[in-house]
Amino acid sequence: YPSGNLAIMVIREGDQMICTVQEDEPRTTKIRALFQSDGRSTCYYPNGDEWINMSIQGGQYLDQAGSRVKRWTWPNMSPGPHVPLSPIFISLNRHVGVRILAQDKIIISFLAMGRQAKFNMGTKVQVGAAGRPPAPARLGREELLLLAFRVRILQLFDRMRGCISFPSSEQWNKMQPPAYVLTQAAKILELCTAADISEELRSSIRAIVN
Fold this sequence. Notes:
By secondary structure, this protein is α+β, with helices and mostly antiparallel strands. 25% of the residues lie in helices and 30% in strands. The model has no long low-confidence stretch (mean pLDDT 80).
């Protein structure tokens, strides 16, 4: 961002890519969106609630109360009637926008100081011989640890803010982390359950985020 804060981070692990959009805030690393090249993506409202959630089957758009505004399925990806996508554009903040045009056209655009960068995080999943899409790729050891440490950093920043706000009180130590941090911690633990990793690593990740 023009402020110097990190806006977008892209990492690659093997043939998988993860794009993370962070909020323009000096003391937090609040995640506004997470896009994965295996077809799973999530965008968040500023308060951490889910805005858009996508999988290899389709996606849904939620309002700030958590009610579903629209849903869609990608062509040939889900059984039953196909629900087409109407193009979606959202602004995560004044610099970052997301356009969802098709499964293989999910564009993250960044605009600042008259210059623009675009990232296409869409993917084209091929239907298997049995008529079903392949199972989504699972995150590896390094990706899971990176996500876990990011949540831990968010937790530590929140504790620091509490300590600064209540320097002469121990009340800050009893405060719960923000909802978006708890949501991200739960998602990481869910990913660990599905991942092909050792039980020792699962326990380490649980200890990091809890």
